[in-house]
Amino acid sequence: MNRTPHVAVVGATGAVGVEMIETLEKRNFPVGKLTLLASARSVGRTLKFKGVAHTVTELTRDSFKGIDIALFSAGGSISREFGPIAAAAGCVVIDNSSAFRMDESVPLVVPEINPGDVKLHRGIIANPNCTTAITLMALYPLHQAFGVRRVFASSYQAVSGTGAKAVEELERQVRQYVAGEPQTVEVYPHPIAFNVLPQVDSFLPSGYTKEEMKMENEGRKIMHHPGFRASVTCVRVPVFRAHSVAVSAEFDRPITVETARAVLSKAPGLDVVDDPANKKYPMPLDVSGRYNCAVGRLRMDCALDNGLCFWVAGDQLLKGAALNAVQIAEDLIK
Known about the structure:
It is built from 8 helices and 13 strands. Helices cover 30% and strands 24% of the residues. Strand 1 (6-10), helix 1 (15-26) and strand 2 (33-38) form a beta-alpha-beta unit. 46% of the residues are buried. The mean pLDDT is 97. It has 2 domains: 6-128 and 321-333, 3-Layer(aba) Sandwich (Rossmann fold), CATH 3.40.50.720; 132-316, Dihydrodipicolinate Reductase, domain 2 (2-Layer Sandwich). It is an alpha/beta fold and 334 residues long. It has a 7-stranded mixed sheet with strand order 3-4-2-1-5-6-7, with helices on both faces. Strands 9-8-10-13-12-11 form a 6-stranded mixed sheet. The protein starts with 5 loop residues before the first strand and ends with a helix.
C-alpha cells in the first residue's frame, strides 16, 4: 500500500462523507491526492480539504483508476454496485453501508477490537453499524476480561443517523410545535419532535427490526464470539447527534463495578464518565464531535447473575462511521 495514498470519498457530500473528509484532515492522514465522488446531482459542488477547494465529480464505473483507498458512504445499493468495481481496479474499499458486513469474505472491523482482520481483506473492508460499534467500545474490553454471554439493550438514536433530511425534519417540527402549527411528517412515519419512535429500520418476521439484529450478528463477527446473544430495542429520539445505549450484560466470570471500571479505564477510544453523585454521566451533547465514546452509570445488574449495567454514548457520525473508516485506512498503510 502506498504510504501517501490516492484516496477517494464516495458519497462525499453526504453527512458521513463530509465527516470523512474532515477526519482525514484532523487526523493528518497522509493523503497523496483526494478525489471526491458523488451522484450526478452533486457534481460541481466544492468541498475544502486542507484549505484547498476540491470539486465533486460523478461516480462512474471508471472512477477508480489509480485510486488506492476508497471510503464509501453512499448507501448499500451504490456499495453493492461500485464496491466490487473499485476492488477489481486495485483499490481497497472501506464501506460504511450494510452491504458487505455479513459477507464471510469481507472483514468487519473496529480497529480497537479486531485490527488484525484488516489484513484478511480481498479488496473490501466493512464498517460496522453505528450502534453496534459504540456499544462494543465498552462491551468488548469487558468481554476480554469476563467473557460476555448475552446482553439486553435499548438504543437512543439521534436523527442524524438517518441523514440531513431527518435533522431538518426535527428542526421544522420543533418550530411548528412552538408556533402551534400541525407537525408535517416526511422522513419518519410519525412526528419525532417531543416524541420517541420504537422503530429503527424495517421490521423482520420475528418482530425485531433489521437494526436490532445487527448488534448480535455483527457483534459475533467483530468479537469472534459466535455464541454471543443480544436482545435489542432500537429507539429514535429527538436528539440531533450522537447515539446512546443502555446495556445489561451477563458474563461467564464474576464481575464487580470496581473490576469493570478498572478494565474500562484502560480501554482505547473510551472515556469513563461515571460520577452519579455529581450528576456526571455520558450524554449526547458532550460526546458530539468527539472521537472517544463514553461509558458510565456502572452498576451491578440486579436481575442477572454476573451482570453489569452500563450506559454508553458516542458520536455515530464519527466512531459509528467516518472515524472508524479512517482508522481502518490508517491500519491499511501501517
